[in-house]
Structure of DDE Tnp4 domain-containing protein:
Amino acid sequence: MKFRKIRKIAVAAAAVFGFIALYKAGKRRRSLWSRQWLLRRSTGRDLAHLVLHELRYEDVKAFQNFVRMSVSSFDKLVVKVRPYIAKQDTILREAIPAETRLLVTLRFLATGETYHNLSYGFRISVPALSQIIPETLEAIYAVLKDDYMKMPQTKEEWVKIANDFHKKWNFPFCLGALDGKHIAIEAKKEYGSYFYNYKCFHSVILLALVDANYRFIYVYVGANGRANDAAVFHESSLCKGIEMNLFDFPEDEAIPGIEGKLPYVMVGDDAFRLGRRIMKPFGQRSTIEQKIFNYRLSRARRVSENAFGLLSNKFQIFQKEINLPLDKVEQVVMAACALHNYIRDEDGFDSASVDNENIQTISITPGSWRQKTFITKLEKSKVNRSCDAGLEIRQRYMEYFNTVGCVPWQWNAVKKFNF
């Protein structure tokens, strides 16, 4: 009997000593919760302090280069995202300010640096960055999408876009330029060959509709890199919305001198399927009239190429393989496209950064982005049969460009550019 009591007491004592040992071990681990060099962030010896308290007031151009936007645009964006990303201080430590959270996220997009590299500069731990950056990307898209990346909802909004295309690029009834690009991602075993594209790297596809002012008005991302333009477009909500007539497009309109009415259309390259709402160029063996159509379409379609170029040049994360889970890659793309529009509207852009056509000398000066971009075009579909309605509509547009809708320099441009 006494032996049993002694054994119970011994077991209980062992348990107590075990808990004490675990508690002490836990305390030892707790003491290493944050490395000392990370705690010195509050002393001002980090990149955030340099940018927000020195470059901001002493070198505005350097500040703009660092965050890819002006001081006023940065301040305005901070106000918008603060309610979503600001955290409360605790008795253990001060919270990382909203300005710093936004700053490190913008730097992540601007450079494509790893979390480890950003950690050293900003004195923020990698686990903290892995929470801060996705959270801030989500907040950026949430606060910008309705005002800066909203797809037109009414006939009047679509007509405004079409009028801009007509005025700037001499293409009437154009609702946008449609294009797709590969976004490189880090290869992972679980992907297999699903995201392996024809250029021999792994990617997801960004499909976008761009207005006449290089702004994204529709973005679809996530399709596997093996797909082509036509397949991605067919899977997109844009295609389904067009088929179901959900976008309240303007009614077809008549043009004096052209038989029948012309519908409002989108322009794309020859990888897309010609349809009632999609115009693409004629093939290589074209008549002079068809070449005129190709030239006029290319002027309107070039805005999408420039929009992608501006995006990748400003946010150089797109010039590297993105080593993030697929859902986080989508966050990166959506936030970057919204920021592209935001910066475009708030700060404008250097005209030298996009292609410039001189109609007096019949020459094109390539945009500066063409020297640096790494975004790859999609593969042309091997099965891409055009519908009869699309063929008829393209024929009428060709007739318009060769008669009442001609511009005086188009004949020389076709000869010089060999369309």
Q: What stands out?
A: The chain is about 50% helix and 10% strand.
